């Protein structure tokens, strides 16, 4: 399998399937296309008749694009790794929250883009009402997962207990909240610590820090 991604520092959609595959122990090669610095992504997209977006997974002759479609494909290909929770209630919640991330949280995503190298203080940034609503929504979701996990006797550190697709879908949120000094809730903070401590997240961070490409419009995000 080959996973086509972009900048580790900035590409939040790339992180999701990459982290899922690493944590699940799925073997893959990676191809990194720095789309703002050369034409390789455009050429790749034209070759496969795709929009010029990553991530894309190549498996045998199959081309799978879009983070959620890739996650679903992997869940189907590796049923023994339980990429979605095995409990039906937790799975339904995980699927709903994953879809919500895929199509929502626009204010947080646009105002505070993922930037693993950034270390800012919230006091120096503009937190709009729309961003605050997204942060409140995260807190409500984390409370809902905590209650669902308790009901289903699965008390691990991740959203549904064991790491699953929903944690991968929210992984960039961890870098956003951490990097811009934002606050969500105690339940969120416990999850964030567990995510940050994952060896795969540390591997991603080290690679992001080693990258020399920069995108100034993202480096200045959130500032007044
Ligand atoms: N809905 C898509 C979003 C993919 C996306 O927007 N990827 C960004 C990178 S994080 C991209 O490829 N941008 C290329 C560009 O802006 O030229 C998914 O879930 O994979």
What order do the helices and strands follow? Answer: EHEHEEHHHHHHHH
**Which stretches are low in confidence, meaning pLDDT under 50 for 5 or more residues running?**
none
Number of strands: 4
Examine the secondary-structure arrangement and name the CATH architecture of the largest domain. Answer: Up-down Bundle
If helices are DSSP runs of H or I spanning 4 or more residues, what is the number of helices? 10
As a percent range, the share of strand residues is 5-15%
Q: What characteristic shape results from the CA principal axes?
A: globular
Provide the list of bound ligands, each named once: glutathione
The CATH class of the largest domain, by name, is Mainly Alpha
Strand order of the largest sheet: 2-1-3-4
Compute the average pLDDT.
96
* Helical amount: 40-55%
Q: What about the largest sheet?
A: 4 strands, mixed
Q: Can you tell me the CATH topology of the largest domain?
A: Glutathione S-transferase Yfyf (Class Pi), Chain A, domain 2
Q: What's the gyration radius in Å?
A: 17 Å
* Overall domain count: 2
Protein structure class: alpha+beta
Q: State the end-to-end CA separation.
A: 43 Å
Describe the structure.
Pfam families: GST_N_2 (PF13409). InterPro entries: Glutathione-S-Trfase_C_sf (IPR036282), Glutathione_S-Trfase (IPR040079), Glutathione_S-Trfase_N (IPR004045), Thioredoxin-like_sf (IPR036249). One of its GO terms (molecular function) is maleylacetoacetate isomerase activity. This protein is α+β, with helices and mostly antiparallel strands. It has 2 domains: 2-81, Glutaredoxin (3-Layer(aba) Sandwich); 88-208, Glutathione S-transferase Yfyf (Class Pi), Chain A, domain 2, CATH 1.20.1050. Helices cover 54% and strands 7% of the residues. The chain contains 10 helices and 4 strands. A 4-stranded mixed beta sheet has the order 2-1-3-4, with helices on one face. Strand 1, helix 1 (12-24) and strand 2 (29-32) form a beta-alpha-beta unit. Helix 1 (12-24) packs across helix 7 and helix 4 packs antiparallel against helix 6. The longest helix has 23 residues, at 129-151. It is globular and about 50 Å long. The termini are far apart. The mean pLDDT is 96. Glutathione binds next to helix 1 and helix 3. The site of glutathione (GSH) has 14 residues, from helix 1 and helix 3.
């Amino acid at each position: 399998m080959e996973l086509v991604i972009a900048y580790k520092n900035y590409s939040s959609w790339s992180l999701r399937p990459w982290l899922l595959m690493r944590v699940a122990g799925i073997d893959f090669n990676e191809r990194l296309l720095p789309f703002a610095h050369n034409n390789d992504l455009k050429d790749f997209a034209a070759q496969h008749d795709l929009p010029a977006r990553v991530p894309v997974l190549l498996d045998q002759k199959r081309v799978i694009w879009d983070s959620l479609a890739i996650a679903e494909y992997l869940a189907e290909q590796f049923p023994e790794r339980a990429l979605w929770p095995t409990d039906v209630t937790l799975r339904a919640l995980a699927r709903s929250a994953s879809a919500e991330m895929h199509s929502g949280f626009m204010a947080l995503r646009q105002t505070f883009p993922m930037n693993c190298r950034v270390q800012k203080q919230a006091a120096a940034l503009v937190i709009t009402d729309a961003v605050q609503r997204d942060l409140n929504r995260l807190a409500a979701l984390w409370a809902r997962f905590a209650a669902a996990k308790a009901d289903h006797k699965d008390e691990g550190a991740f959203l549904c207990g064991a790491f699953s697709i929903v944690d991968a879908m929210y992984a960039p949120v961890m870098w956003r909240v951490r990097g811009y000094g934002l606050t969500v809730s105690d339940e969120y903070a416990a999850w964030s610590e567990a995510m940050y401590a994952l060896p795969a997240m540390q591997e991603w961070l080290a690679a992001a820090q080693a990258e020399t490409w920069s995108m100034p419009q993202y480096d200045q995000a959130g500032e007044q």
